[in-house]
Specification:
heterodimer; A: Rossmann fold; globular; B: mainly alpha; ABC transporter involved in vitamin B12 uptake, BtuC
Chain lengths: 274, 281
């Protein structure tokens, strides 16, 4: 039951027991690849029922941070989940919605197969357990995708696939939900639907959500907190605070809400770390 | 044990082609091998590992050469050991480096074949090894049938245990890790299974065509199927059908059995390919 005395000026008054709420803490995260520090000294504090968006220039280490949180690459520092009673003893469940799938689009794998492979011990090539089918339909209906259950993964549109992956990440309901740029290759309508679904789930399930995104407009609209990452946390706070911060403006190019393509290109060039 | 099988065949299949014992042995071998190829092939194709499994064949070829060089009771054990080490090495390098997978596989594959050819040609005795290029399923011995039986049950057991994890890893590695799958370990188990089966089989089917037996049935199946159950069922079906039909035709035509099996599987592939629109969903 260690009460951490972290110095984290963006969340003063939020140490230890999260002020009576459950929360997730990323403490002193660092990732090294060869001689290069990709991430160092990353401290982020995420409250339950909040969506925290991580923004940053290309190469800032956003995807690396997600991979480290998933335990896929070695890292220093700690990931702590705390309930109201302090640090949770049991293993937390982390749900993950990948950026894209690298599967072969011609592969004969249905949405149901994906659920069986993830949630059942019975091999999907031989069995079609009816309890998993029921569970999958329930989960899919949360994201308005129950009609897709027998569809092949390769036959889904970008938006449909993202909703299916979201439903999968929510079964079982995770302590922490990681969304990796879920908007790439998704049309405007699918995108709104996806974010509205995430926003609903956030309040209904009291989920802690980390969203890695390039789309600053959507971040401004949907995120509760924003973290500007560039190898370490540059600044964090409410969307208003972060988007008015001089460092954010410098990294992304100033008038990002009315940015035309030339401005975006310029912003990326300036923001790239050497 | 084998006597019982002979008795069953005589009773059930009173045909000329299966009169001789070597044909009964070959039939049993085909019945044990083809389902295994049909199963493993599905994920080889879905993972775009056709080139990879081809290189495992090359590793197995060298394994056989090394096994023969070491001698001992049965050269097959040395061969299996070598190809397992070979498969594990490529898998680890493939996972740990950013070098293009094709390049890694190309390098290892050529090296393995070169080593195999050098060993086999040393002392000018290459001819006795040339059968490994084409293979001869009619030469199968009772001991080898026993080995096949073990491999058959081992692969089916493995596939029951790890298939879900293999599928998840093939769809997205990070997604699989987030659900507690040790993706490297699963990859290694999968490739070791391929390596062992290919090594045992290579002397009957031959290096030149063994990969087609893995790839063709699954590649044919995916044209007309929509989920993994259909995918496996059709793949195993095509694999077994080609195996049995190929054995029979090769008997009457007096052709190489392995190649005849592959031709029938290829015909099945093209037939399914032409039918794919009708099954599209």
């Amino acid at each position: 039951m260690a009460v951490e005395m972290t110095i984290d000026n963006s969340h003063a008054g939020c140490e230890g027991m999260c002020g009576g709420l459950c929360c997730t803490k990323i403490e002193n995260f660092g990732v090294r690849k060869g001689q290069l520090d990709i991430l160092e000294n990353v401290n982020i504090h995420i409250h339950c029922g909040e969506m925290t968006a991580i923004i940053g220039p290309n190469g800032a280490g956003k995807s690396t941070l997600l991979k480290a949180l998933l335990g896929e690459i070695p890292h220093t520092g700690e990931l702590k989940f705390m309930g109201t009673g302090g640090i949770r003893g049991d293993m937390p469940v982390v749900g993950y919605v990948p950026q894209h799938l690298d599967f072969d689009p011609g592969t004969p794998t249905s949405v149901l197969d994906l659920f069986i492979a993830s949630c059942s011990g019975k091999p999907a090539w031989l069995f079609k357990p009816s309890n998993i089918r029921k569970r999958a339909i329930e989960g899919l209906s949360k994201v308005k995708a129950e009609h897709l259950i027998n569809r092949r993964l390769g036959a889904l549109s970008g938006g449909e696939l993202q909703r299916v992956l979201l439903a999968l990440a929510l079964d079982p309901v995770p302590n922490l939900l990681l969304l990796d740029e879920p908007v790439s290759g998704v049309d405007q309508g699918g995108l709104e639907l996806f974010y509205n679904t995430v926003a609903d789930l956030r309040s209904n399930y009291d989920l802690s959500i980390i969203l890695v995104s390039h789309d600053l407009e959507l971040v401004a609209k949907y995120a509760d907190r924003v973290v500007l990452l560039n190898r370490t946390v540059i600044t964090s706070g409410t969307p208003g605070q972060v988007f008015n911060d001089e460092r954010t403006l410098r990294i992304f190019g100033i008038p990002h809400f009315v940015a035309d393509e030339a401005d975006i290109g310029k912003g990326h060039k300036e923001g790239r770390p050497d | 044990m084998l006597e019982i099988w002979y008795r069953i065949v005589d009773l059930m299949l009173p045909f000329e082609w299966v009169n001789h014992d070597f044909m009964k042995n070959a039939l049993l071998a085909v019945l044990l091998l083809t389902p295994v190829f049909g199963l493993l092939g599905t994920m080889v194709v879905s993972n775009r590992m056709a080139f990879f499994s081809d290189s495992i064949g090359h590793g197995a070829f060298t394994g056989v050469a090394i096994g023969a060089l070491l001698g001992g009771i049965q050269p097959i054990w040395g061969a299996i050991l070598f190809s397992v080490v070979f498969a594990v090495t490529i898998t680890i390098i493939k996972n740990k480096t950013k070098t293009s997978t094709d390049t890694v596989i190309g390098v290892f594959s050529s090296t393995a074949v070169a080593i195999g050819l050098v060993i086999m040609s040393a002392g000018g005795g290459f001819n006795k090894f040339s059968s490994y290029l084409v293979g001869d399923i009619l030469s199968i011995s009772p001991f080898e049938l026993l080995l096949l039986l073990l491999a058959f049950f081992a692969v089916i057991l493995l596939w029951l245990l790890i298939f879900n994890k293999v599928l998840l890893t093939s769809i997205n590695q990070s997604l699989a890790s987030s659900r507690g799958v040790n993706t490297l370990f699963i990859d290694i188990l999968f490739t070791v299974a391929i390596a062992v089966v290919v090594t045992i089989t290579i002397q009957w089917v031959g290096l030149l065509i063994i990969n087609s037996l893995i790839v063709l049935p699954a590649a044919a199946s995916r044209n007309i199927t929509h989920n993994v159950r259909q995918y496996h069922a059709v793949s195993v079906g095509i694999s077994m059908f080609s195996g049995i039909a190929g054995l029979i035709f090769s008997y009457y035509w007096n052709t190489a059995t392995g190649a005849t099996i592959v031709l029938i599987a290829a015909a099945a592939f093209f037939a399914m390919f032409l039918l794919r629109k009708r099954f599209a969903a």
